[in-house]
Amino acid sequence: MPVPYALFALAALGLLAMYLGRQRAISVAKGDIRRLHSLPHFHGALTMIVALCGAVLGWIAFSVLGQPGGFSGQVGFMALPALGGAGYVLGRIRPELWARNATETFIMGLLIACSMVAVLTTAGIVFSMVFETWHFFQLHSALNFFFSTEWNPQFRGGSSLGILPLVWGTLYVSAIALAVAVPIGLMSAIYLSEYAGPKMRAWVKPAIEILAGIPTIVYGLFALITVGPLLRDWIAQPMGLGDSSSSVMTAGLVMGIMVIPFVSSLSDDIINAVPQSLRDGSLGLGATPSETTRRVVLPAALPGIVGAILLAASRAIGETMIVVMGAGAAAKLSLNPFEAMTTVTVKIVSQLTGDTEFASAETLVAFALGLTLFTLTLALNVVALVIVRKYREQYE
Asked: Residue 112 and residue 225: Cα distance in Å, rounded?
């Protein structure tokens, strides 16, 4: 049975069980629901929950056992446990049954399970990276990986897999991106929250947030076709700094445009959260609007703004497509922003693509790179959380 049909069957079984449970509760109460501990719809919900749990368990068993009997077997595996569970609950419905408590307990457990999905997913990701990284360090020297300044993977042996050039490229591109995004985003947030009228804010803020919805491949094409050639022809070649359209500056500028909404929108929300009474008090003491913004509003909102900037930095560090198309793939240590360089994320992609031997150090290095990048972004997020919690103001 195709999945959509199976879901439809589950919905039908659930509705039927809920109807039967509700009617059974009304029947045992002899039409007077005041005799029931719980309202009839709680009895129906409890019957539906047990029936659906039985059907889902039957579906899982059918899949694990190799789908015996085909379509008819699947129907039996789903219907029999569902009907058995519904029949069990229907037989236990009494006026004194605490159906509401049982239903709410199940819902609470379901909510807890949903909240654990993100935690378990993160734990699974970390475990998989740590496991494969451990295999990598059995094949390749950790000293060479962390301290070598050369990145030269050779699948036939003799590789030099130093992460320093990749980390340098990652931080260089991210620094340029933040140098673009932070001033523009912060000034935009100050204007929107402190100076713009309702009509101006109504269309400027969504227009800025559109930047966050543009696919990164589009930004990459923009960097490759427009920004890169302009920087090469107008700045790099006339100043003798390079003749390639792929450069750190190209990727950094375009990435900075991409992360402007992260700084602008979050900072705008944080500045708006500063109580109006602080502004009124400052203005009442004779301060101008600009002085109020600089000396009252921004200091009060500073912890949240720093957190927004660090979040934008994490987004920039993890970007891949813009770097591939804008900065190139050369792993090198250089201060020239108009030279082609690469980042950790780009090399993760390149090491895992193509017809390669998965058990080789040249492939497993992608997991070590991923774990390093994960640690770096996690550290940024922890720093942001500590800053916000330590310095944020509590307002009445």
From this structure: 48
Please name the residues in contact with 220: beta carbons below 8 A apart, sequence gap of 6 or more: 254, 321, 322, 324, 325, 326
Whether the CB-CB separation of 38 and 98 falls below 8 Å is answered with yes
> What's the sign of the alpha-carbon dihedral 62, 64, 69, 71?
positive
**DSSP secondary structure letter of residue 259:** H
Cα 191 from chain centre: 28
Q: Region 14-42: what's the mean pLDDT? A: 84
As to burial, measured by CB atoms within 10 angstroms (0-12 exposed, 13-18 middle, 19+ buried), residue 207 is: exposed
Residue (of 217, 230, 231, 250) closest to 326 by Cα position: 250
Q: Residue 129: in which H helix or E strand, if any? A: helix 99-139
Q: Over the chain, what is the mean pLDDT?
A: 86
Strand partners, 151: 161
Single-letter amino acid, residue 392: R
- Residues 76, 59: Cα–Cα separation, whole Å: 9
Please name which of 20, 157, 140, 147 lies closest in space to residue 83, comparing C-alpha atoms.
Answer: 20
Give the type of residue at 81: P
pTM: 0.76
Helix (H) or strand (E) holding 371: helix 361-391
Contact 304, 273 (CB under 8 A): yes
Q: Is residue 395 pLDDT above 60, yes or no? A: no
Using alpha carbons only, what angle is made at residue 78 by residues 75 and 83, rounded to the nearest 5 degrees?
110
